[in-house]
């Protein structure tokens, strides 16, 4: 059954991308073998040319005397009757059949059209969330930090093309206009290179969409110089002229940049502008369960209303790496059988792995630790979900509690609700540090938390009266750089009936909300 109320970002998780590097190595080796086979063939041909040319020149120096020798005459006839026939056969023989077979064989392991679509979306999400200029982004300057990586013209064009297909013309122009001066520096062979005319034409189309007609015309003129007899270009030029003729008054001032949707709220919070109240403390929790007298928990208050704490160093390095390596073995590259990007919403859910608590000693031990952290009875609570995010991986704003009153909740979810209750609280473990981005933000509460390996956040999703607390809505900001792994534990309500009894809810009374804290 569906365990997560909201679909997470769709991109291939980072860990499922790791094997792609091996596939790429295999492909390069394969191409190298092909080149070797070609070289071998070339060598054979070249050496034979030398032999044949020597013989031919010997004959042409004095043809009559050469041919008067029957050995030479015979050989010429035989050569021209037999050898050239064999040469033809030899030249027709394809080079590197086995390498070509390999290529066909590995086709199924390569990312799909939809994977590329997801990756483009991830790139755009990072750019817009953190408000990164296109040229900075392309040159590897991400949110103020310079990395030793940059995008090739082919990479840039893929993003520009994606944006154009998504009808985001202004953004597409932003990307595509970075291309023309880069193309000249490319060392791609002819068939892999992106043609300048293709870039200029797409740019012109985007300008037409934006009603920047004179810019479009200049680009189209450049295109026509490169490809004077192209019918599609001519048609586009005529269309542009028609536009100009038919809507002279609607032309926008050309330099007026269409406002990029600089988002409020979510985006701003992801850029890390929240402040913490000075009334908050760090302390050792000795009291939630008797065990904590022996091993108190390092606790940091994030907020009192809604109540939220961080528990530091609750997982060891070994536990985290075991969880991640076990999950990555089970996490499949989520393949899409329907590769039509239009159907993107129907496919692929989170790239995670669910661990049964009864799995082994590791999961049982972590389960006991969560009991110590929360004081809750976890018998009916959910399995652990381990998640790894991909390029620009994020999770839209959502609440972990279910809105049972809404019409969406029927069938299996309703049954769970009846038997287990709602998700009264969440424990979210971070299994890795994240170099940049990837914060968990609670916009309504004004909290943002940056991932730190071994730390867990704990919060109540429900008010004391059992209703969902909308202030606990949260989102995972896009990861800029790093591999973000988290593990969630959703604690169900009914089993806590005597631990956190139902009380009328009064806002602003943090003491009630923090009943299970020390
Ligand atoms: O990854 C995060 O920071 C948040 C994850 C989350 O909200 C969830 O799994 O429900
Ligand atoms: Fe969540």
TrEMBL record:
EC number of this enzyme: 1.14.11.2
Primary localization: endoplasmic reticulum
Pfam families named in the record: 2OG-FeII_Oxy_3 (PF13640), P4Ha_N (PF08336)
Transmembrane segments: none
InterPro entries: Oxoglu/Fe-dep_dioxygenase_dom, P4H_N, P4HA-like, Pro_4_hyd_alph, Pro_4_hyd_alph_FE2OG_OXY, TPR-like_helical_dom_sf
Enzyme class: oxidoreductase
Keywords: Coiled coil, Dioxygenase, Endoplasmic reticulum, Glycoprotein, Iron, Metal-binding, Oxidoreductase, Signal, Vitamin C
Coiled-coil stretches: 21-55
Required co-factors: L-ascorbate
Protein name: procollagen-proline 4-dioxygenase
Native source organism of the sequence: Drosophila rhopaloa (Fruit fly)
């Amino acid at each position: 059954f569906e365990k997560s109320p909201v679909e997470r970002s769709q991109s291939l998780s980072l860990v499922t991308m790791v094997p792609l590097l091996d596939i790429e190595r295999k492909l390069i080796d394969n191409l190298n073998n092909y080149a070797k086979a070609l070289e071998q063939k070339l060598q054979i041909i070249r050496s034979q040319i030398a032999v044949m040319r020597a013989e031919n020149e010997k004959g042409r120096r004095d043809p009559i005397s050469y041919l008067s020798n029957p050995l030479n005459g015979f050989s010429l006839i035989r050569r021209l009757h037999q050898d050239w026939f064999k040469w033809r056969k030899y030249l027709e023989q394809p080079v590197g059949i086995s390498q070509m077979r390999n290529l066909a064989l590995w086709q199924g392991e390569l990312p799909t059209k939809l994977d590329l679509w997801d990756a483009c979306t991830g790139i755009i999400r990072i750019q817009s969330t953190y408000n990164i200029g296109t040229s900075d982004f392309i040159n590897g300057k991400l949110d103020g930090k310079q990395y030793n990586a940059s995008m090739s013209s082919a990479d840039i064009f893929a993003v520009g093309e994606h944006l154009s297909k998504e009808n985001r013309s202004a953004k597409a122009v932003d990307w595509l206009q970075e291309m023309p001066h880069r193309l000249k520096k490319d060392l791609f062979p002819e068939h892999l290179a992106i043609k300048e005319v293709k870039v200029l034409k797409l740019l012109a189309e985007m300008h037409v969409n934006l009603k920047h007609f004179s810019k479009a015309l200049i680009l189209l003129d450049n295109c026509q110089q490169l490809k004077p007899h192209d019918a599609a270009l001519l048609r586009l030029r005529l269309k542009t002229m028609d536009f100009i003729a038919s809507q002279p008054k609607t032309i926008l001032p050309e330099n007026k940049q269409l406002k990029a949707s600089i988002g409020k709220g979510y985006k701003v919070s992801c850029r890390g502008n929240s402040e913490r109240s000075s009334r908050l403390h760090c302390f050792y929790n000795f009291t939630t369960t008797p065990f904590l007298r022996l091993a108190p928990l390092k606790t940091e208050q994030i907020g009192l209303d809604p109540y939220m704490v961080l528990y530091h160093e609750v997982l060891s390095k070994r536990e985290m790496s075991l969880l991640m390596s076990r999950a990555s073995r089970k996490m499949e590259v989520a393949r899409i059988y329907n590769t039509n990007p239009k159907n993107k919403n129907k496919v692929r859910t989170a790239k995670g792995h669910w661990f049964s608590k009864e799995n082994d000693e590791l999961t049982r031990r972590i389960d006991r630790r969560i009991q110590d952290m929360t004081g809750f009875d976890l018998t009916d609570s959910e399995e652990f979900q381990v998640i790894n995010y991909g390029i620009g991986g994020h999770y839209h704003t959502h609440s972990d509690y279910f809105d049972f009153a809404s019409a969406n909740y029927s069938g299996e979810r309703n049954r769970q609700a009846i038997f287990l209750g709602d998700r009264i609280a969440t424990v979210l473990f971070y299994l890795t540090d994240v170099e940049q981005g990837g914060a968990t933000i609670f916009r309504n509460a004004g909290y943002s938390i940056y991932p730190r390996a071994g730390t867990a956040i704990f919060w109540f999703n429900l008010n004391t009266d059992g209703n969902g607390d909308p202030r606990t809505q949260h989102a995972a900001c896009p990861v800029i750089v790093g591999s973000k792994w988290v593990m969630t534990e959703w604690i169900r309500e009914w089993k806590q009936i005597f631990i956190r009894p139902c009380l009328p809810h009064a806002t602003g009374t943090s003491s009630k909300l923090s009943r299970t804290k020390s």
